[in-house]
Design goal:
By secondary structure, this protein is an alpha/beta fold. The chain is built from 13 helices and 17 strands. The strands form four sheets. It has a seven-stranded mixed β-sheet. A four-stranded antiparallel β-sheet has the order 2-3-1-4. The longest helix has 19 residues. About 3% of the residues have low confidence.
């Protein structure tokens, strides 16, 4: 169905409402004191030369404060039958008349872009849903739907335009920085804002030399590195494999005036660390930030033999994201410890500074964040990288995903 003007004209909703009649001089005080009770989809209506009425969104018995005001001022209550047209109907009120299923509520906004993860029950009505959402949110420019899981090497979404402009550029304010991106070309999750807040506070709380130096191995468009530079004065080496992500990171570094603090790189994460070991890249880091949950734990093998490779006895803190299965935190810890020990033989859970459950993916599967300091035994071990066939993965879906990612990384390296 196409939402034509003719269909819009047919969409109405009738209401029988109580209305309060007030002298003109009481309109201001009533509006200030009882705004929450005023029916938002109707304006004040003239009753006579000295009074107007306004509909309220509640029926008797009224809340005590409203009833007292009515009684103290001798106000009159009348009945109003009003009809709300399409322009004043809400998103839910429109869709309940147009589709046989409940309107989808879960969408995320990125500046002027709204994106859904629509379920199968909503797909037959996706364009209708997109148009209504656009009509009812003046701040939106584009409405789209994610059509596939994030199963490519760059974790970028496959988007279908539902309504509005085919324009996925966005400018986001986060913390003390502004970040530009193209949602179709890079990975972005607005809800990770509070997680970046948490990590930056944790990094700042740990005793270390100043300025703090952070190696961000999967940085995307650079939100963590740029915020660390801007907000806590850190020096950052920020890397991502996605050339589009690095393009926007460079734009964001310049826009936020941290070009003397953040160095962008576009290569495989292990290659960055190997180049630091070989002195091709000169960077002495205090923290490693590894936010790529499906793969990051497997990259920890590059820090086995850290001291033998660098000669450093001061060992870095590592903040790594991953998935784990279990109902209890103990189950999650056991799985995470087992996976990390495959990369770092000296690791045990007593070294964990912070174990944080970021979100529930399913009832059993959680996204977790582990912060710890690289241990001496692992750092002084012989350096070698794990065979990819021996690496642990999170689930059947993740195994398929990791195989796809590994193949795509190889293709990129061959280009």
């Amino acid at each position: 169905m196409i939402l034509t003007q003719e269909i819009k004209n047919q969409l109405t909703k009738a209401h029988n409402l109580d209305a309060v009649v007030l002298p003109l001089k009481q309109i201001g005080p009533f509006t200030r004191n009882f705004k929450q009770y005023i029916f938002a989809q109707q304006r004040w209506q003239k009753e006579d030369e000295n009074s107007k009425s306004i509909c309220i969104n509640i029926k008797q018995p009224y809340p005590e404060d409203l009833q007292k005001y009515i009684d103290d001022n001798g106000l009159k209550i009348i009945q109003k039958d009003i009809t709300i047209k399409y322009e004043d109907l809400s998103y839910n009120e429109v869709l309940e008349q147009l589709i046989p299923v409940q309107a989808p509520q879960g969408f995320e906004t990125i500046e002027k872009i709204a994106h859904f993860n629509l379920g199968p029950e909503h797909l037959p009505y996706k364009f209708l849903i997109g148009q209504v959402l656009l009509d009812k949110n003046r701040n939106l420019r584009t409405v789209c739907n994610k059509t596939q899981k994030l199963d490519n090497v760059f974790r970028t979404p496959v988007l279908e335009l539902l309504a509005g402009e085919n324009n996925y550029e966005a400018l986001i304010n986060e913390g003390k920085v502004k970040l530009q991106l193209n949602f179709q070309e890079v990975y972005w999750n607005t809800r990770l804002y509070s997680e970046r807040e948490r990590i930056l506070k944790l990094i700042q709380s740990l005793k270390q030399p100043q300025p703090i130096k952070i190696l961000d191995l999967f940085c995307g468009i650079g939100p963590c590195a740029i915020r660390a530079a801007k907000e806590i004065g850190a020096i950052c080496l920020a890397n991502d494999l996605n050339p589009h992500g690095v393009k926007y990171m460079k734009i964001n570094i310049q826009a936020n005036k941290v070009q003397n603090q953040v160095t962008p790189l576009n290569m495989d994460a292990r290659e960055v660390v190997l180049k630091i070991y070989s002195k091709e890249i000169n960077f002495h880091f205090d923290h490693v930030y590894m936010n790529l949950p499906v793969l990051a734990i497997n990259f920890l093998d590059v820090f086995r033999g850290f001291t033998k490779q660098t000669g450093r006895l001061d060992l870095p803190f590592i903040h790594v994201y991953g998935f784990a299965k279990g109902l209890a935190e103990e189950d999650l810890l056991q799985e995470v410890e087992k996976r990390i020990k495959l990369c770092l033989p000296g690791f045990d859970r007593t070294q964990i500074l912070k174990f944080h459950i970021l979100k529930n993916v399913t009832k059993m599967k959680k996204m977790v964040v582990i912060s710890f300091q690289l241990d001496k035994l692992s750092a002084e071990s012989d350096f070698y990288l794990n065979d990819p066939k021996d690496q642990q993965i999170d689930s059947d879906d993740d195994e398929i995903q990791e195989e796809i990612v590994d193949q795509q990384v190889k293709k990129i390296k061959q280009q």
